[in-house]
Amino acid sequence: MHDLDDMTIEQLRELRKNVDQAITSYETRTRQAALDAVEEVAREHGFKLADLVEGTKTGRKRASASADIRYVNPDNSDQTWSGRGRRPGWVKAALEAGRSLDELSA
User: For residues 104 and 57, which has the higher predicted lDDT (pLDDT)?
Assistant: First the structure.
C-alpha cells in the first residue's frame, strides 16, 4: 500500500470512494445481521417482528396511558387533553374565543 503523502489527488479520491463503499457495505451487513437476530428471537417467542414493532415507527414518545385527562372540549367530549405537550387546536380556539382553561377543566 502506498503512503498517503505519495498519492495523487485522483488516487486519494479513488481511495476515499472505496473506503466509503466499504463502510456502507459494512453497515448494511451488520444492520441485516442485527435484524435477522431480532427476527429469530421474535420467532422463538411466537411472534413476527412486525407484530412487535407495529405503531412504534414514528420515533416519538407516545402519551402515557396514565396521563390524566385535565381538559375536555365542551363542544365534543371525545376531544380531551392532559395538559401536557402542545395545546390541541380546539384548546387554542377556545382560548382565542375568550374561554379560560378553567372552563375546559374535566
Answer: 104
Among residues 11, 77, 10, the alpha carbon closest in space to that of 2 is found at: 11
pLDDT, tens digit, 9 for 90 and up, residues 65-80: 567 889 999 888 889 9
The count of domains in the chain is 2
Inter-residue contact 71 to 104 (CB < 8 Å): yes
12 within some domain: yes
Domain housing 35? 8-53
Q: Alpha-carbon distance 8 to 26, whole Å?
A: 27
pTM over 0.85: no
- Residue 1: what pLDDT? 56
Q: Are residues 48 and 82 in the same domain?
A: no
Is residue 64 situated within a structural domain? Answer: no
Collapsing DSSP states into helix, strand and coil, what is residue 105? strand
Q: Are residues 49 and 12 in the same domain?
A: yes
